[in-house]
Amino acid sequence: MKISVITAVYNAEATVGAAIASVARQTHGDIEHVIVEGNSKDGSLAAIRNASHDRMRLISEPDGGIYDALNKGIRNATGDVVGFIHSDDFLAHDGVLEQIAAAFEDPAVEAVFSDLDYVSQADTSRVIRHWSTGPFHRERLKRGWMPAHPTLYLRREVYEHYGAYDIKFGISADYDFILRYFSQTMQKSVYIPEVLYKMRLGGVSNRNLAKIRQKMGEDFHAIRRNRVGGISTLAMKNLSKIRQFRT
């Protein structure tokens, strides 16, 4: 089973090498790593080339932002299964994609997801937040449930059927897509109750108060657009994050 991993890169010189290396080390044999680099202003392109491996493909050209870049990666992916690793994050261990592939051996499975740790930028061994997703039940969508997006692997046909990311969303296109898919699908999903992904804190959606407010507005629009709830859904989604923090 071939797995396509997509990484969108823009001005990530310091971290993209570690993201690429975490894919290069994977023990699963049939992998393609599609790097979509958006004409960065720093040394990202050189860092990508320095970390390149024989299962990697590079697309380097301007794009319209992260979701446009991810859509471009999806269009160019040739794997049976598609997933993502962001340019400042990394897979938790060398057997992650082997676990993902094993879950997809059941032909009825269409989606696989897991837990995620948010780690310190300065010390990636230090866990700040732990996102334990839990299994999918449709009624949980109204209570703010969503899988951690970078842990979500889908058969490529899902994007062909449901469409990709709506780039009108600046921050919440992933949440909009997740609601679109999980509110409609009747297919089987698998939750792996392990941390398979490590995310450095400091993403665009929680960078400052303006971004937080923008994300909340976009999340509410996605909730209403996909008819999975209302303001209480947004409130429960945000409140659920509180218990993720490590003390």
Protein model, in words:
The protein is built from 8 helices and 9 strands. Helices cover 32% and strands 23% of the residues. It is globular, with a radius of gyration of 17 Å. Strands 1, 2, 3, 4, 5, 6, 7, 8 and 9 form a 9-stranded mixed sheet that branches. The model has no long low-confidence stretch (mean pLDDT 95). Helix 6 packs parallel to helix 7 (209-225). It has helices spanning 16-24, 44-50, 66-76, 96-103, 156-162, 173-182, 209-225, 231-239, and strands spanning 3-9, 31-37, 56-60, 81-84, 89-91, 109-119, 127-131, 153-155, 188-200. The protein is of the alpha/beta class and 247 residues long.
Instruction: Tell me the total number of β-strands.
Output: 9
Number of helices: 8
Instruction: Give the helix/strand class.
Output: alpha/beta
The major β-sheet equals:
9 strands, mixed
Overall morphology: globular
pLDDT averaged over residues? 95
Q: What fraction strand?
A: 15-25%
